[in-house]
Description:
Radius of gyration: 27 Å
Largest sheet: none
Number of strands: 0
Amino acid sequence: MANRRNHSRHRGIADNFHGSSGEPAEESASSLEDLAALAAAEEDSAQASSSEKVARAKKLIADPGYPPKEVLNSIAGLLADHLDPNGPS
Length: 89
């Protein structure tokens, strides 16, 4: 009986997109179209964002003052603090 209750609470995603006749509900179909459009827009945005990040990375790599010495010294200090005094295992 517990399995039956769990099954009713954990319906599949497809169950949400069907009307009482088993066919996709009209409003669910438009929701799927909206979802597809949103996914396409997100993909376009991710590609643009990726291009911007690559351009920024290239600019930083070309900068002889990047990363600042303070950052390098901080990272070196963190690494030194975590070194094993007995050497690598």
